[in-house]
Amino acid sequence: MESLFGIDIWSYANLNRPGMVLVPRSLRSVFEKTVTDAGAQFEVQIENIKEAIEEEERLLAAFSQRSNFSDGRLTFDKIHRFAEVNAYLDQLAAQYPSVTVVNAGKSFEGRDIKYLRISTSNFQDNRKPVIMVQSLLHAREWVTLPATLYAIKRLVVEITDRDLVNQIDWIILPIANPDGYEFSHTNSRFWRKNRSTGHMVGNICMGVDLNRNFDFNFGTASSGSACSETFHGRHAFSEPESAIVRNIVQEYKNRLEMFIDVHSFGSLILYGYGNGVLPPNALSLNVASVRMASAIDAVKWPSKPNYRVGNIGMILYIVSGGCSDYVQAVGVPLSFTYELPAYRNQATSVNGFLVDPAFIEQAGFETWEGIKAGARFVLQNTRKMH
User: Fold this and answer.
1) Dihedrals φ, ψ of 273, to 5°?
2) Distance (Å, whole) CA 85 – CA 172
3) pTM to 2 decimals?
4) CB atoms within 10 A of CB 7
5) What are the CA-CA distances from residue 40 to residues 5, 13, 338 (Å)?
6) What 3-state class would DSSP assign to 228?
7) Is the pLDDT of residue 237 over 90?
8) Which of 111, 263, 107, 135 is nearest to 196 (CA)?
9) How far apart are CA 109 and CA 114, in angstroms?
10) Does residue 347 register a pLDDT over 90?
11) Looking at residue 279, what DSSP letter applies?
12) Cα(76)–Cα(139) distance, rounded to whole angstroms?
């Protein structure tokens, strides 16, 4: 049905839960008939998603205050735009000796993709493990940005765990897909892909799903149709954004002990591989996942579900060309995908990618608790001798 109708699958159904899809109004009747004819059941969660988007806009506008970078602090009362975030990274690099901002290259539309290196030894101590955290590989997953920004806050501005700063070198990439992210603010709230035009069919169907564009089982469980939300592109690393992530990983992979790709939604911590095959160190991956999930669950909002952990293909769905799979396959011991909790509107029952402004700082805080637990696991199990 995804191929037939081009519907936007927000979450896949499995034996334990229903899926959620966004259906264009023009396809509603034929979609509902096809589901019914297949012997499946459905219920409409919200008649007009535009109303939910407008409510998100209203809440975010009412909640936000003017940002202030002068003291190295960033507000967590809004979802910051691309230019704000890059200005903040530059400000931190100018203000804190432990911070270096690196321009890793340009997106398809020419935006600078920047990341922070956070290190008390300027990345010169090869005994230190490296941990990398990134967000917004999928453009519409706005709630993931507070996770990386909050991690920066705790590693640079308001340090609460000095051992994690002294003993680990950090790479934080807040906006991995800047073109798609900006487009999700200005044109299409649920835009997922990048904005590449190299695969267009006529003048339609832009973009590649960057989390299907990595060189691991490429093209085996994704779409070859440019109109699909999971279009994998013409070949692995066809997109500048995925190539930039690859280059960062390759540069540091000898010391890179843990990689976390932050997504939403689902309250999950996932590890490889997306085809359901387990890496040789699956037990370590699972132990680390449980520790991270338990740390988040200890401080999460009671209204949010407990985190589940497991193999991508076993508890979510079969995928290929995924970023965390690629990182695992090139030799990084601990590679994870976080799926942060879903937005939920009790009045309409709609849940998914929209952002509750009251949850922005909490999303950063609780995810940092998980990252911290993972970092301590790294210190106990690093490949490097102390």
Assistant:
1) -100, 165
2) 12
3) 0.94
4) 17
5) 17, 11, 30
6) coil
7) yes
8) 107
9) 15
10) no
11) P
12) 19
User: What's the rounded mean pLDDT across residues 66-74?
Assistant: 66
Amino acid identity of residue 270, one-letter, is L
pLDDT of residue 386: 36
Sign of the Cα torsion 213, 214, 220, 222 reads negative
Alpha-carbon span 270 to 240, nearest angstrom: 25
- Tell the residue number behind the tokens 């939403």, with chain if given: 264
Residue 230's identity, in one-letter code, is: T
Rounded to the nearest 10 degrees, what angle do helices 360-381 and 145-152 cross at? 60
Beta bridge partners of 130: 169, 256
What is the rounded CA–CA span in Å between residue 275 and residue 269?
16
- Residue indicated by tokens 């994704």: 222
Question: Which two tokens mark 45?
Answer: 């969660």
Ordered DSSP codes for 72-120:
S---SSS---HHHHHHHHHHHHHH-TTEEEEEEEE-TTS-EEEEEEE-T
Cα distance between the two ends of the chain: 53
List the catalytic residues.
339
Q: Three-class SS string for 306-372?
A: CCEEEEHHHHCCCCCCCHHHHHHHCCCCEEEEEEECCEECCCCCCEECCCCHHHHHHHHHHHHHHHH
Residue for token pair 């805080």: 365
pLDDT digits over 192-203, tens only?
999 999 887 777
The pLDDT tens digits for 3-12 are: 777 788 888 8
Among 316, 315, 307, which residue's Cα sits nearest to residue 289?
307
CB 382 within 8 A of CB 129: yes
How many Cβ atoms are within 10 Å of 315's Cβ, its own excluded?
14
Provide the pLDDT for residue 385.
Answer: 40
The rounded distance, in Å, linking the Cα atoms of 39 and 215 is 37
The continuous run of DSSP H or E covering 352 comes out as strand 351-352
Residue with tokens 């200890």: 298
pLDDT of residue 75: 87
CA-nearest of 258, 96, 235, 115 to 173 is 115
Task: Give the whole-angstrom CA distance, residue 38 versus residue 36.
Answer: 5
Q: Are strands 130-135 and 256-264 parallel, antiparallel or unpaired?
A: parallel
- Which of 49-63, 148-162, 238-252, 343-357 has the lowest average pLDDT? 343-357
> Which pLDDT band, with edges at 50, 70 and 90, does 299 fall under?
very high
Rounded average pLDDT over 89-109 = 97
Using alpha carbons, select from 213, 144, 148, 135 the residue that is nearest to residue 177: 135
